[in-house]
Write the structure tokens for this entry.
Amino acid sequence: MQYIHRFEDGAAFQWPLGKVVCVGRNYAEHARELNNPVPSEPILFIKPATAVQSFAEPVRWPAQKGECHHEVEIAVLIGRDLKNVDEQQAIAGIAGFGVALDLTLRDLQSKLKDKGHPWEIAKAFDGACPLSGFIRPERVSDLADIPVRLTVNGQVRQDGNSNQMLTPIPKLISYISQYFTLQAGDVVLTGTPAGVGPLHAGDRLLAELPGLLSAEAQVSGAG
Ligand code: ZN
């Protein structure tokens, strides 16, 4: 199914999907739960457009690659080209907010990390980025107070807030733009709060920015 950015009212966004720029360990508690040091600068990686799918599609991952972990994240839709921007320009370039899953083949990632190799293949596979519809930026009054939550089979597993981010959203977008030009239609994933864990076939997922938007997905499993 061809993925198109949409707002929650169903309106299509005028720009097609581009790349997805992600940040690792942007919540100290999550860094600690995986026994990772808390970084002094954002750790960036990219998911290609082929990793993105809507929440309406079943969640699956490559077979025989070990555990696939959920990482719920606040997603920021970029509305204009941003290169070497400051924080004010970064804020002005936001076209919407959504919720995403940064699906991660954790066993594979751990092996790659042990060898000091890039972990791209553990994070960039087809379907590795379920993405919700977006709310318009006016709906968010404070970028430093956006809640994000993931419920699996009725149990809350991850419950965070952008106020816990090591690099807040405007600073993160500004930082990214020093290295890669962000283009209209790109998405920034802003890191995951603590509580990540493995998914299983049959799991029902509810990803939310509580009070703002929600998206449900069904896990079909490896294969
Ligand atoms: Zn992540």
